[in-house]
């Protein structure tokens, strides 16, 4: 009779394992279920936050470029009026 060590604790930090019997622990393991459900609750908010951050970055970049172009246009009109 051989003795197998318990699964490592860090296993529960990863997304759901494949369907049994391909190397996943029982679905009724409460710690496994807790970790999996926590991930399904947290991941969508993580992606939403990432998308919001990128949207804000793009918006800031757009406003910066608009301001820069306006300043160039003002410079162009200023140089035209000052030359004549």
Description:
- The chain is mainly alpha-helical.
- The chain has a domain at 57-84.
- It contains 1 helix and no strands.
- The protein has one helix at 30-83.
- The radius of gyration is 28 Å and the shape is rod-shaped.
- The relative contact order is 0.06.
- The mean pLDDT is 77.
Please give the oligomerization state of what you see. Answer: single chain
Mean pLDDT figure: 77
N to C succession of SSEs = H
Helix content: 55-70%
Number of helices: 1
> How many strand units?
0
Decide which structural class fits the backbone: mainly alpha
SSE arrangement:
Elements: H1 30-83
Notable characteristics:
64% helix; mainly alpha; 1 helix; 84 residues
Summarize the structure.
The protein is mainly α. Helix content is 64%, strand content 0%. The protein has a domain at 57-84.
């Amino acid at each position: 009779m051989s003795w197998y060590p318990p699964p490592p604790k860090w296993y529960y930090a990863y997304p759901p394992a494949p369907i049994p019997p391909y190397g996943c622990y029982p679905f009724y393991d409460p710690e496994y279920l807790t970790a999996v459900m926590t991930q399904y609750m947290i991941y969508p908010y993580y992606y939403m936050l990432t998308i919001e951050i990128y949207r804000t970055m793009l918006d800031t970049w757009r406003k910066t470029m608009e301001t820069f172009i306006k300043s160039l246009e003002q410079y162009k009109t200023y140089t035209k009026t000052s030359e004549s």
